[in-house]
Design a protein that fits this description.
Order of helices and strands: HHHHHEEEEEEHHE
Strand order of the largest sheet: 6-5-4-3-7
Strand content: 15-25%
Number of strands: 7
Structural class: alpha+beta
Largest sheet: 5 strands, antiparallel
Number of helices: 7
C-alpha cells in the first residue's frame, strides 16, 4: 500500500511541473530570486530574469525527475581537462580547501593558485618549456613566438603573455592559448 501512495505522489509532482514552469513566466525578478532561495537554499546574486528562469526551470525538473545519473557525473569527471576553462575554474573554486595550499615541490609544477596553474619558478604552468617556438598563420602571415623564462618573445620584443601577442597580431582581445593552439592540443609548438 505504501508503494501506491509513493507512486501517486510522484505522479502528482510530475504533473505539477508544467504548471510550475508556466508560473515562472509571470514572476517578477524579486519573486524569481525568492523562488531561487527556496529551491537552491541560498540567495542568488543575479538579477537577470532570463537566467533565473532557466536555472529555476532546471531545478524544478531536477527535483521532480532526478538529477544527472551517476554515469553522467562519472563521464564529466573523466573528461576533466577537456571541459571548457570557465567550467574547470568553477570546479577548482568549489573544491578549494579552506587551508592554504601546500608548498610547491622543488623544481616541479605547483598546484592551482587562485584558479591559475603556476610553476615553482612563478611562470604560468600552462606554458610549454622555455625555448619552445609557437607558430600561427593569421590572415596569410605566419607569426612565431618563442617562450622564454621571463616572458614571450615576438619580433624581438619581450611580452608578458601569449594574449598580449595575440592582441597585437589581431587587434582584438584573444585568449593567447587558444590563438596559438595550446588549448586544443594543436601541433603548433616546435621545441628548439
Amino acid at each position: 500500500m505504501a508503494k501506491k501512495g509513493t507512486a501517486r505522489a510522484a505522479r502528482k509532482e510530475l504533473a505539477d511541473v508544467p504548471r510550475q514552469l508556466a508560473a515562472l513566466a509571470s514572476m517578477s525578478v524579486s519573486d524569481l530570486a525568492e523562488k531561487y532561495q527556496e529551491l537552491y537554499g541560498e540567495p542568488t546574486r543575479s538579477r537577470n530574469r532570463d537566467y533565473l528562469r532557466k536555472r529555476l526551470a532546471f531545478r524544478i525538473q531536477e527535483l521532480a525527475e532526478g538529477g544527472l545519473s551517476t554515469r553522467a557525473v562519472a563521464r564529466i569527471s573523466e573528461l576533466g581537462d577537456k571541459l571548457p576553462e570557465r567550467w574547470r575554474m568553477r570546479q577548482v573554486e568549489e573544491t578549494k580547501p579552506s587551508a592554504p595550499p601546500p608548498p610547491a615541490p622543488a623544481g616541479g609544477r605547483a598546484a592551482a593558485v587562485d584558479g591559475r596553474a603556476a610553476a615553482a619558478d612563478g611562470r604560468d604552468a600552462r606554458l610549454p618549456p622555455p625555448g619552445t617556438v609557437l607558430t600561427r598563420v593569421f590572415k596569410g602571415t605566419q607569426h612565431r613566438v618563442t617562450v622564454r623564462e621571463d616572458g614571450i618573445e615576438y619580433e624581438g620584443q619581450l611580452h608578458r603573455s601569449l594574449s598580449s601577442v595575440a592582441k597585437l597580431v589581431t587587434g582584438t582581445a584573444w585568449n593567447g592559448f587558444t590563438f596559438f593552439g595550446l588549448k586544443d592540443g594543436g601541433p603548433k609548438a616546435v621545441t628548439r
